[in-house]
Automatic annotation (TrEMBL):
GO terms for cellular component: cytoplasm. It comes from the Bacteria. Residues 4-261 form the Amidohydrolase-related domain. This is Amidohydrolase family protein. GO terms for molecular function: carboxy-lyase activity; hydrolase activity. Pfam families: Amidohydro_2. Keywords: Hydrolase, Lyase. SUPFAM superfamilies: Metallo-dependent hydrolases (SSF51556). GO terms for biological process: secondary metabolic process.
Length: 270
């Protein structure tokens, strides 16, 4: 089965590594990308997407320069990846002008994925502030896709509702009450998808249950590597009671469609 991991976090330096138990290793530069690729291909994953984020010891200094450095690391990894990696990038509502300029810069470099946005990171922020609205209006003009960390409050709902022409992908199904909340949001907003990274997929039947309610076209495979073991997510999807067509959509076709990429064009499943 072809697999695109829509939600992972690569790293170029040890300070950007988010794994909890294994050390990042001595690799640097292209060797880091080769290590990531080896890990993912060993799990059966053929392409990865996501942003570079600071590790647990990273201190937010309140400067967009720090976010830009993470974004440039993502571009560097893309250039080292031989087509294996689609980068995501950071924006921040405290830096409207800089964020819009970053959207323009990334669009020039063929990057259409914003996020994962995380409201408790980088000093904390709201998804639905007026400043974020201005940034997302620019994102809409460039056909961006916005990945965001799911929240339990209505902040994300307001963001998605105000920008119906943008495609949003919420991260992490969560436990049962949160799954129901996520599905209800997706029922309300046709421009909202859900990736399977993080908590949730370990619960038997969660994916088939969700697909029966909303259709396979609304879900994307994701892992949150290197925090999580990617092989567990691969087999979690393969084990679920889905049709071959539904599995293809979740594993790679939906990601190709919304990102406008063609990783497996002309290829059959294998």
């Amino acid at each position: 089965m072809n697999l695109i991991d829509f939600h992972m976090h690569p790293y170029l330096t040890g300070s950007q590594y988010t794994g909890m138990y294994l050390e990042p290793g001595p690799e640097s530069g292209k060797n880091v990308m080769d290590k990531i690729r080896c890990d993912m291909e060993r799990a059966g994953i053929s392409h990865v997407c996501g942003s570079v984020i600071g590790g647990g010891n990273t201190v937010w200094k309140g400067s967009f320069h720090d976010l830009k450095e993470l974004n440039r690391s993502a571009l560097g990894l893309k250039n080292m990846s031989d087509g294996f990696y689609t980068p995501g990038f950071h924006i921040h509502p405290e830096f409207v002008r800089e964020s819009i300029e970053e959207i323009e810069y990334m669009a020039e470099h063929g990057v259409r994925l914003i996020g994962e946005l995380v409201p408790y990171a980088h000093g904390g922020y709201s998804y639905s502030s007026g400043a974020m609205d201005k940034i997302l209006q620019a994102a809409e003009a460039y056909g961006m896709v916005v990945s965001y960390h799911s929240t339990d409050d209505d902040d994300a709902d307001r963001m998605v509702e105000r920008h119906p022409k943008l495609t949003f992908v919420a991260a992490h199904p969560g436990e049962k009450p949160r799954v129901e909340q996520r599905l209800e949001r997706m029922r309300r907003y046709d421009n909202l998808y859900l990736d399977l990274s993080g908590t949730g997929l370990a619960r038997l039947g969660i994916l088939a249950y969700s697909v029966r309610r909303l259709g396979a076209e609304r879900f994307l495979f994701g892992t949150d590597y290197p925090i999580n073991n990617p092989a567990m997510y691969v087999h979690g999807v393969l084990y679920e009671a889905l049709s071959d067509r539904e599995r293809r959509m979740i594993c790679y076709e939906n990601a190709e469609r919304i990102l406008g990429i063609h990783i497996f064009e002309g290829e059959g499943d294998h």
